[in-house]
Every structure is written in structure tokens, then in C-alpha cells.
Amino acid sequence: MENTEPIGFIDSGVGGLTVIKEAMKQLPNENMIYLGDTARCPYGARPAEQVIEYTWQMTRFLVKKGIKMLVIACNTATAVALEEISQQLDIPVVGVILPGTRGAVKASKNQRIGVIGTLGTIKSQSYEQAIRSRDLNAHVISLACPKFVPLVESNQYQSPIAKKVVAETLVPLQNKKIDTLILGCTHYPLLRPIIQNVMGRQVKLIDSGAETITEVSMLLDYFKLGNLYATKTGELTCYTTGSTKLFDEIANEWLQGPTIASKHIQLGDE
Amino acid sequence: MENTEPIGFIDSGVGGLTVIKEAMKQLPNENMIYLGDTARCPYGARPAEQVIEYTWQMTRFLVKKGIKMLVIACNTATAVALEEISQQLDIPVVGVILPGTRGAVKASKNQRIGVIGTLGTIKSQSYEQAIRSRDLNAHVISLACPKFVPLVESNQYQSPIAKKVVAETLVPLQNKKIDTLILGCTHYPLLRPIIQNVMGRQVKLIDSGAETITEVSMLLDYFKLGNLYATKTGELTCYTTGSTKLFDEIANEWLQGPTIASKHIQLGDE
């Protein structure tokens, strides 16, 4: 009943930590390994082939660590690489787009749903297709926000600049009568208070990462992979391809849990 | 991509209609068949062996109809029969107890969680074990509410009697400092306004049935069973072993959708 193997999480940078935060709450028993490809972040404007290659590099690194499940905690990578990776691995692989879709369909009352994400995610139309295929009557309004990820990765997500950039970027979503907005990038929940303020309290924000943990929790149960009846809290190990200092600053501020001391690794030299 | 086979739902009576209501919202494309064993309701005080036998009778009836997934939309039946039925069927089988557990762990901030259910569900300690196995630090306070199901089945769930019974029954949960209460019986959401009023607004009520539909939605995606890109809304067919008149009254009042005209069937004469 006790499966102590870790769950693996990958992201282009620190964004997937928003998924980790929810995992620490909902799955306190589980051991976790996180890998952020900070050195090559952002992924949003990169060609799909390159994102797929980078995602495979991260995946192979974590599979060698003996993970029992892989979470692609990055919308850009999920949009282009989930299908291929989940077909080729023999452990369950979870992306963030379908959980975000389900969360939005569940929350929306007027079936007018907004989606914000990176250029890559919005261009892929993944959310639009996922929502429309499930609900013929849903309206989806999408907007790429390429300036948001750099704000987070540079640890400026609480700054006055962030407020200005978010307000200016979200103008096209005003007066569109959406009642639900999907944060279609795992970096965006760090900007959540600002986004909520700009959109107004009547708009429900869907954190695709948080929804993803519900799916992870469900799959742990379904495939009987959970670390049940643990006698101590799970551990989190972090790796980054970039600056460990910047990563740890953001991680410790965001997670407010046991101190994170990430390890530096290099990808792409296999 | 279009799998029009129905999803099957079974319950001891009309309680599973609360799960259906959520399914109509979250999965508007899906065709559904519902079977309520109203003639033998409530299940709550029956011996486990008998509940297992009745649940198998309902299951066999729906399997013959060609369902692609089975939802045991009854906590009492889930507690004693889910494991056995899911092992023996070759379609995915979903119960209501783990989804309710996940919803509560996700929602609770002080890790003090209340559970109300039938005698059978509470006696099984299913919620208690599921929560504690996932979170060592959680406190679970359980209470059997055997008078609630008859209030709903007799269509008295909005009456002054219901208010009195609910208030008296929930006294043992007062001052227990719970911030989350699992409605561990699919009948209870019909009493939700009364329960919320008695418990106070600070207590978050978890509708195990609504959480279950998130799991159903996820499994439809994971196993690629969804009725995607449908061109019309799914249909709901209802069967009851009891009075179709009473069933239809409750169903139409509760679902507020296309008119339900249930069909009467008899179980147990196989």
C-alpha cells in the first residue's frame, strides 16, 4: 500500500511550482521530483519541434530517477508533446490542458470561457478544441500573453511593472462577458492577484495546475500507485538548468514550506 | 472520436440524480442511463451482503444495455461493492467515496473534516480510512444520519419537517471546528440549503457526487471514451424499481431539464 516512488514534474522554468504547491496540499504523503528548464525558458515562442525535443530531454532525466508518474506541468509542452510522450512511456503521463478544460466547463455558468497562455499554447488551439469538443454551446476567447512568463522568471511578479503589463495585456478580454478565465500557463497563478484585480471579482480564474493535481490524485487511486498510510510527509527534490539562486528564491517565497535547495543540471548533452 | 454509448448510473433510489445533474452540466454530450432501486430503498441499514447483491443486480441490468462506464452513484453501495465490481467488469467503474475524499482534502484548510452518511457508509469507515491514509494529520468526525434518505425519497426534502430533522441530527457536529463537511450520501445535496444553514456559512460542503463527475470526465479522457464533437445534447433514460410517478416528480423538479418519464422495471427475478 506504500508506494514511495516519486512523482515527476517538468516545466520550462519555475511555473510548475504552482502545481507543486497544490500537490503539497492535496498529496502530502507523496515524494516528488521537480525539473525546471530555466536556462531555456520561455518555451512559448519556440517552434513545436524544439519544445518536443526539450520536453523529451526533461522526461528522460526524470524517468531515470524512477518516477511512478509524470506530470507535464507546462501548458506549452503539454500542447505539443503530451500525446507522443504518454504513448511511449509505460507510466501514466498527465498534462495540464484537459484538467484546465474540465475545471472551466465545471465552473462556467454562461458558457463564455476565456483562455490566456503563451504564444505556443494559444496557437495550438488546444484549449479551444478541448472545450468545444466537449460542449457544442461553449464560446472560447483566447489571448496570448507573451510578456507574463518573463515577469515571473525574473521574480518581478509582484512589482508595479507586473501590474502595468497585466492590465495592458488583458484589455482585449474586457467586455467579452466571460465568466471564467483559464490561467493556461502554470506561471500565471503567481500573477493571480493582479489578474483577478484586472478582470474583476465576477470572473472565476481556473488554475490549470491545481486542477491537474486532482487528476494526479485520481490516477494514483485508479492505478493504486498512491503512497498511502505514510508515516511522514513526502519530500520534494528540485533540479534546474539555470540559476539555483534565483530558482530557490522564487520557490521558497512561493511554496512557504521546507527550504528548497535546488541542484543544477545540464540537459541536451546526452 | 464519437463514442455514443451511454454511461450507466446506479443508486438505491433518487439520490444519484444529484450526480446526474452535475453530469448534465459537465458532460452535456454524453448519453446516460440511470437506474434507481427505489422499491428497496433505503440501503443504509441493510447488511453488506444484501447491498452487494442488489448492486450486482443493478449492474447486470445496465451492462446488458451496453454502457461504456459504470458510476455507482450511491455511497452505501460504493463502500461495500465497488472493489468487487470494478475487478470483475471490463469497463471503468467509478464510486463516489474517493472523489468526495479528494474534494474534502483539497478544500479543507484546518484538516478537520466532517462526514455524514447512511449507517452503512459510516459503519464501513470508508471515508475515515481514505482520508487518513492520504493525510496523516487529518481529523475526521463522522455521523450517521439515517433519517435523511427517507425525507428525500418521500419528496419532503423542502418541508419544515426536513428542517427540524436536519437541525436535530447535526447537533453532534456543532463545535467540532470542522471547516469541511462531506455530504457522504448522494441524496443529501437535495437537503443542501438546509444543511448549509444549520452548519453555518463557514463550513464548506463537499458534494461527493459532483466530485465524482470530475473523475468520470477525467476517465473518459484518459481512456478516450468521450462522446467528443457531438452535434446534439446527450439523452438521459431513467429506470426505477418503484413508483415512476414519484420518481418523475422528484427528477423533474431537481433536474429542471428535458422532461423525465422513467420506466418501471423489476430486479431480482433473474
TrEMBL record, chains A, B:
The gene is murI. The keyword Cell wall biogenesis/degradation applies. It catalyses: L-glutamate = D-glutamate. This is Glutamate racemase. One of its GO terms (molecular function) is identical protein binding. It comes from the Bacteria. Its EC number is 5.1.1.3. Belongs to the aspartate/glutamate racemases family. It comes from Enterococcus aquimarinus. Pathway: Cell wall biogenesis; peptidoglycan biosynthesis.
